[in-house]
Amino acid sequence: MFNPFMLVPCLICLYTVLSMIIPLRVPAAAKLLLALLTLSGIAKLFLLRMTPSGFDIYELPRNIALLLSSMFSFMIAAAIICVIKDAAFVLWKIFARSKFPAHYASLCVLILAAVTTVCGVYGGTRVPDVVRHEVRISGLGKNLDGLKIAMLVDIHVGSVNRRPFVQEVVDKTNALNPDIILIPGDFVDGHVKDRKNDLEPLSQLRANLGVYAVTGNHEYYYDLQGWLKTLSKFGINFLENERVVITSGDSRLVIAGVPDPTGGSRNTPKALENSPANVPVILMDHQPRFSRENAQLGVALQVSGHTHGGQMPVISELIKRFNKGFVRGWYDVDGMKLYVSPGTSQWDGFPIRVFDPSEITLFILKSED
User: Fold this and answer.
1) pLDDT tens figures, 146-163
2) Which of 35, 46, 111, 214 is the most exposed place for a label (fewest CB within 10 A)?
3) pTM listed for this prediction
């Protein structure tokens, strides 16, 4: 049965073959091989949509999953570079009198796409570095000045990112000696029975004032309640339209959280209900697109993920448009500080990062007063 979901990637694949492979002056057998390799870029999508019920695409062996995802990344990178090449072809036909060097241009596309994929997949699967930010918060009491908050987001444990990766992230995070750890969603792609062991190192996270989290959209694609129960046993406290008050001496800070809208229960006013007056609020909201309405509720700092920082040029502009102009880094939203993390890891389906490194984020809070 035809699945309209597959039409777009099939057209992208066809365009890439016609633009990058057909113009090459190589034997027909080589063109066929290159075309089949490019076609393998959509193999994982076909498996995802067409395999029998009960087979989970995210449980493929790691090397096979990484290879299929890398070929998909290659196809996307090649298609983007082909657009640039074909735009250059149009300009060449208008302004140049000589014949367009189609073979060499296509060869350049092939090489650039391959280099981009190799470097991008390495960037998308490596253990991230720590990025530190000093954040000034109005109304922050002197006893909380210097408070350290570590943030992990978009961990996306699945067929590619497994226990060794999570363990290294946990070890790096604990080495920061954070007072609080925040995890604003997208822990996992997979079922509890398959991925529980990979996420178990999260139980080793240490923060003297607590580890807090909210759901991301990917938690809803599998067993939400099972994951909430499992992650809670690991010592992670989920704030589902809730808040906690952090107290040190006479200084207080509110940490609040809302679930991802995929579940249909997101309610920021409820999360902030009965918060103590004149106490700064840090809000976890997986998607940054709701930041303007959150700012109207008096939030001092919102931390989000979801966008993966845009992943690579061109695609980052599309992701920005789907997230109301937010994609990575710091924004001032009607007086509220918004930080959009590029993520701690990457979704298995498109594990590529070009000029967009992942990170473990460390906020050091300072008073503006």
Assistant:
1) 999 999 999 999 989 999
2) 111
3) 0.93
The C-alpha atoms of residue 338 and residue 333 are separated, in whole angstroms, by: 7
Look up residue 352 and give its amino acid: I
Q: Which long-range contacts (CB under 8 A, 24 or more apart) does 64-67 make?
A: 65/158, 65/159, 65/160, 65/348, 66/121, 66/125, 66/159, 66/160, 66/351
As a whole number of angstroms, the distance between CA 48 and CA 207 comes to 38
On the question of pLDDT at 292 being above 50, the answer is yes
Tokens representing 194?
Answer: 């398959």
Question: In sequence order, which ranges of 126-223 are alpha helices (DSSP H)?
Answer: 163-174, 192-199
Question: Is it true that domain 130-367 has CATH number 3.60.21.10?
Answer: yes
Rounded (10°) CA dihedral 183, 189, 190, 191: 30
Nearest to 36 by CA among 51, 50, 16, 19: 16
Residues of the chain with CATH 3.60.21.10: 130-367
Alpha helix (H) residue ranges in 96-205: 102-125, 163-174, 192-199
Angle at 368 between CA 362 and CA 369, to 5 degrees: 140
DSSP 333-363: ETTEEEEE---SS--TTS---SS---EEEEE
